[in-house]
Amino acid sequence: MTCIQSERQALLSFKQDLKDLSDRLAAWTNNGDCCKWEGIFCSNVNGHVMELHLGSSKLGGKLNPSLLELKCLSYLDISDNDFPETQIPTWFWKFSSNLYYLNISYNHFQGQIPDLLTMIHPSAVIDLSSNNFNGPLPLISSNVISIDLSINSLSGSFSRFFCHKINKPMKLEILNLGHNLLSGEIPYCWGNWPSLAGEIPEEVTSLVGLQSLNFSHNLLVGNIPDNIGAMGSLECVDLSTNELSREIPPSVSHLSFLSLLNLSYNKIAGKIPTSTQLQSLSASNFLGTELFGPPLSESPKSGRFSSSVGNEVHDQHEVDWLFISIVLGICLVSLLCSASQGDLNIINMRMR
Questions:
Q1: How far apart are CA 27 and CA 343, in angstroms?
Q2: Please, which residues bridge with residue 41 across strands?
């Protein structure tokens, strides 16, 4: 099955506005079958262009609205390129509502992200991370199962994002909001999110199948959930670089699968509970706190770590959440084993 002439012309128009520094699109010419071009995947049934894989291609320039002619396109990856510091045009956001996979991460796009309420595919995956987007968090469609908004300059509170009322239950499985300028507490109104009810810290402990919890590098306040020990499947917990306070709940010692607990750079104080897992952790997980006890010193005074000590160590011992939380494509997760039905496998509010 050869490609459709009008779609070949649309791809050529798209190429005209691109800077192809690696000549990856050299085969995109007026001659030949566009379904055989680099990065193009067509339907074997009707020849329509279905997928465009142009990630890590050293592309620049601007986005041409000729993409609108690709009526059956459902997968678009232009991540890790060198698009300039320009705003995404309005037509592109409307066009993307037909996609089940959209990845424009690791570019220099800027401006505000509009609400993404019109994603029509029942299992949409969106990655807008590592750009220069600003403004509030966008509202998202109930069809979105994974969205990564990390490493941008999004600001404001969580309330609008979590409290927006929609008619359908959310299907979201992976959420990454890390390395932004968000502030405040997680609100009570998580009713639209099927696995989440109530406010962090306490109600989240009902997610007994959760394996990875990452709220690091935000401005969260309050204490660690007292009943966190009920989340028996937890393997990795990263709450570092927030404003959390009080002591580590004793129930943490019940987390027998825990391999990482990063509480560094918080206002947490007191003695670290005793358990095989906690005492085997690196002391760098508690930098910038007022904790003491193994693996730190038994003395409260000498066990105190200041935030000026070991910033470089903090970076060296950090878990690479990019590879733990999301493997692009269909969001295969390296720590993603089956959780109890209805539970999120990963809550991730930070990446790298």
A1: 46
A2: 51
Cβ neighbours of residue 6 under 8 Å, at least 6 residues apart? 69
Token output for 71: 């009526």
The tokens for 179 are: 């390395």
What is the tens place of the pLDDT at every residue in 142-169? 899 899 999 999 998 877 887 776 666 7
At residue 12, φ and ψ (nearest 5 deg) are -65, -40
Residue whose structure tokens are 């692009």: 328
Task: Kindly give the residue spans of alpha helices, DSSP state H, lying in 73-218.
Answer: 90-96, 159-163
Computed from CA positions of residues 248, 253, 255, 261, in that sequence, does the dihedral angle turn out positive or negative?
Answer: positive
pLDDT in tens, 103-118: 999 999 999 999 999 9
Determine the Cα–Cα distance for residues 175 and 178; give it in Å rounded to an integer: 9
Tokens of residue 238, six digits? 């990263």
Measuring CA to CA, which residue among 261, 156, 179, 256 is closest to residue 213?
261
What long-range pairs does 279-284 form, CB within 8 A, spacing at least 24?
282/317, 284/310, 284/313, 284/314, 284/316, 284/317
Question: Rounded to an integer, what distance in angstroms lies between the CA atom of residue 80 and that of residue 5?
Answer: 29
